[in-house]
């Protein structure tokens, strides 16, 4: 799995989010996905994570790319982390999406809410 493929998968995932395509999102997530926000785990497992997407959709939440995606880590060729800057409403986020290279499923999301300028 190369870096370009991982970045493309990330953009497909973001497009699925903005299209409110829950099946498309589910296709990108590992069953044991973890979501971290500002250094702490806020959700574990796909059944715990999916309701947050439904809530985002009900609130008409969309994201836009504000910083280009870049590879930030690889672990023994088993995973690849991609960092991207996103904006949702007036909130800027830095997110590292880590993909398992064998199937391109996302294992954790590490979200940092950026300080207001």
How is this structure best described in words?
This protein has 117 residues and is of the alpha+beta class. The protein has one domain (3-113): Nuclear Transport Factor 2, Chain: A (Roll). Helix content is 31%, strand content 47%. It has helices at 3-18, 22-28, 46-58; strands at 29-37, 40-44, 64-75, 79-88, 91-100, 105-113. Strands 2-1-6-5-4-3 form a six-stranded mixed β-sheet. A hairpin with a 2-residue loop joins strand 4 (79-88) and strand 5 (91-100). Helix 1 packs antiparallel against helix 2. The chain is globular and about 40 Å long. The mean pLDDT is 92. InterPro entries: NTF2-like_dom_sf.
What's the layout of helices and strands?
Blueprint: H1 3-18, H2 22-28, E1 29-37, E2 40-44, H3 46-58, E3 64-75, E4 79-88, E5 91-100, E6 105-113
Parallel strand pairs: 1-6
Antiparallel strand pairs: 1-2, 3-4, 4-5, 5-6
Helix pairs in contact: 1-2
Helical amount: 25-40%
Strand content: over 45%
Structural class: alpha+beta
What is the average per-residue confidence, as pLDDT, rounded to a whole number? 92
Global morphology:
globular
**Radius of gyration based on Cα positions:** 13 Å
How many separate structural domains?
A: 1
Protein name: SnoaL-like domain-containing protein
InterPro entries: NTF2-like_dom_sf
Which keywords apply here?
6-stranded mixed β-sheet; Nuclear Transport Factor 2, Chain: A; 117 residues
Question: Would you kindly provide a brief summary of this structure?
Answer:
The chain has helices spanning 3-18, 22-28, 46-58; strands spanning 29-37, 40-44, 64-75, 79-88, 91-100, 105-113. The protein is of the alpha+beta class.
């Amino acid at each position: 799995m190369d870096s370009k493929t991982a970045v493309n998968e990330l953009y497909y995932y973001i497009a699925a989010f903005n299209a409110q395509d829950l099946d498309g999102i589910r296709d990108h997530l590992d069953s044991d996905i973890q979501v971290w926000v500002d250094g702490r785990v806020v959700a574990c497992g796909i059944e715990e994570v999916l309701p947050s997407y439904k809530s985002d959709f009900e609130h008409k939440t969309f994201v836009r790319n504000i910083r280009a995606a870049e590879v930030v880590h690889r672990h023994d060729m088993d995973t690849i982390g991609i960092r991207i800057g996103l904006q949702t409403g007036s909130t800027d986020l830095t997110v590292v999406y880590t993909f398992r290279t064998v199937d391109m499923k996302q294992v954790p999301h590490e979200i940092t809410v950026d300080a207001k300028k």
